[in-house]
Amino acid sequence: MKSVVIGIDIGGTFTKLGVVDKEGNNIASKSISTQTTDNNVNTFLEILNGELKKILHEIGSGYRLIGIGVGAPNGNYYSGTIEFAPNLQWKGVVPFVDLLKKYFNIPIVLTNDANAAALGEMLYGGAKGMKDFIIITLGTGLGSGIVVNGQVVYGHDGFAGELGHINVRPDGRECGCGRKGCLETYVSATGIKRTVYKFLADSLEPSSLKGVCFNDLSANMITEAAIKGDKVALAAFEYTGEILGSKLADAVAYTSPEAIFLCGGLAQAGDFIIRPTKLYMEMNLLPIYMNKVKILPSGMKDNNVGIMGAAGLIWHELEK
Amino acid sequence: MKSVVIGIDIGGTFTKLGVVDKEGNNIASKSISTQTTDNNVNTFLEILNGELKKILHEIGSGYRLIGIGVGAPNGNYYSGTIEFAPNLQWKGVVPFVDLLKKYFNIPIVLTNDANAAALGEMLYGGAKGMKDFIIITLGTGLGSGIVVNGQVVYGHDGFAGELGHINVRPDGRECGCGRKGCLETYVSATGIKRTVYKFLADSLEPSSLKGVCFNDLSANMITEAAIKGDKVALAAFEYTGEILGSKLADAVAYTSPEAIFLCGGLAQAGDFIIRPTKLYMEMNLLPIYMNKVKILPSGMKDNNVGIMGAAGLIWHELEK
């Protein structure tokens, strides 16, 4: 029998599940809704358990489940809890691992989605063989996973790696965390939308993006416009890369990583975001770090990053 | 025979040596000049060797030397080199460990002074039992040592932990590194001198510091003035603590440490620097980190921090 794990990637809207072997083959996967009509995590767990049992039945008896990894916003590695996640229905502190253990009596580990992505990148992606790197997830917000000496940095309380909330401007854009000027208000799928709107307010440049309302605008549309040469879209990428690059120069002064990986929705823009990020990072680096740090797209297949990260988390744990 | 190590703390002007046992007793110590008339590291090593042999002879035959630890500016843990240190006479890349091994055929390890201070704090100071903390040395510049999971963060190239050069203001004060607005241009013994001069330029407040020229002014004098209620000195500490505190809030978002230790000359000011630093750090922290992170003075005897750090480095290495 082949040993496999289950990777679970919990998002605000959807939860993705996948059965993954040690070599990183995604044997089966599925997406279910994270939301239930009663906002109750126990209802969700009932549904999740049903789906997992079904998926295990479908792949047949040639596999043995040996662990479950979970990536979740505000997930705490030490306690296995999801704490005060603004984008989830479940309020307060949810003891997710303990609750899931009622259904599965095997090792279960949980961490935040960006830390999980870092482990996925290390086991299955572009960070194979690297001991010091950072992963930045550019989705609705900006998440980060920091790896030092081959280990994810969890910090004394399990909450390390919140680069989305380092300060860019003391009195800058309002952030969902209640403060102002956080990095993710500029650098994320939502951040670049805000930047497009800033440029549409400030300049008279013609732009196809003038026909799209804020709610409908996506990072993808901005990339599409940039491909067609839209000057507002191009300027928005330059502005985003300048802020990200200058802050990554600071990040290098902390842990001196070999590479920084960009993944998530906004990273799909490829060189539109990577080129200015690299440029402004180099412009702001202390000389001893210059031309040493790679800025790379994720080496994992993008639609599975969440599942592979969560699977990587539990494989990494089982190897300890 | 009792096993001992030698800790060597190389500074721009003086080099301090000490024989230290595992329990952190400094059995003998000495200070020699780092500078030689010929600017040659080999001349320095000859003198250093002579002094070390003398000190070992003096303590007698009850001790066995089992290792040497060296803390030096721009010291690289991986290569044992001192690279382009602006405050030392030796230019370029100096293979210090290899050169010292010609005199002593025992384990010798080198790192930068702030990383060594972190190991000293962990073995002999206030960080005993802590696995995640940061040490900030506030001397001529600002040095930093970051500990994650009980290990000093060296980064992929051995140069991690240069918080003195994270950016505070994009077009701020000129820094010795050639860039502008680095943290150490505001927060260090030199930084607070510059701040005093800024306030003397901007305000009409009477101050005893108006009678001191820049070259003569020291962090100690500013503390003395603050004790006497000098408003310029007090404002300078507030300003310094505000900048340090806001940047330490960012530092917490990286590695979520249990405590941040302040040591070195400016830290002698005690609460004049610790109080505003703590206040502004808390004001800028992401809510999940609030009221969790201690700001502490070093727990080591201050005149020996360098020696104890270097000794801690080699004891830590010998235990691996």
Task: Give the structure's gist in a few sentences.
The structure is a homodimer of 320-residue chains. By secondary structure, chain A is of the alpha/beta class. Chain A has eight helices and 13 strands.
Shape of chain A: globular
Q: Which range does the strand content of chain A fall in?
A: 15-25%
Largest interface: A-B, 45 and 45 residues
Number of strands of chain A: 13
Structural class of chain A: alpha/beta
For the biggest β-sheet of chain A, the strand order reads: 3-2-1-4-8
Largest sheet of chain A: 5 strands, mixed
Q: Number of helix segments of chain A? A: 8
As a whole number of angstroms, the C-alpha radius of gyration of chain A is: 20 Å
Give the helix level of chain A as a range of percent. Answer: 25-40%
For this entry, what is the oligomeric state of its chains?
homodimer
List the secondary-structure elements of chain A in sequence, H or E: EEEHEEEEHEHEEEHHHEHEH
How far apart the termini of chain A lie comes to 22 Å
Low-confidence stretches of chain A: none
How confident overall, as mean pLDDT of chain A?
94
Please describe what this structure looks like.
- The structure is a homodimer.
- With about 325 residues, chain A is α/β, with parallel strands linked by helices.
- Helices cover about 35% and strands about 20% of the residues of chain A.
- Chain A has 8 helices and 13 strands.
- In chain A, strands 3-2-1-4-8 form a 5-stranded mixed sheet, with helices on both faces.
- In chain A, α5 crosses α6 and α6 packs across α7.
- The first copy, chain A, is globular and about 60 Å long.
- The model of chain A has no long low-confidence stretch (mean pLDDT about 95).
- Chains A and B meet through α6 of A and α6 of B.
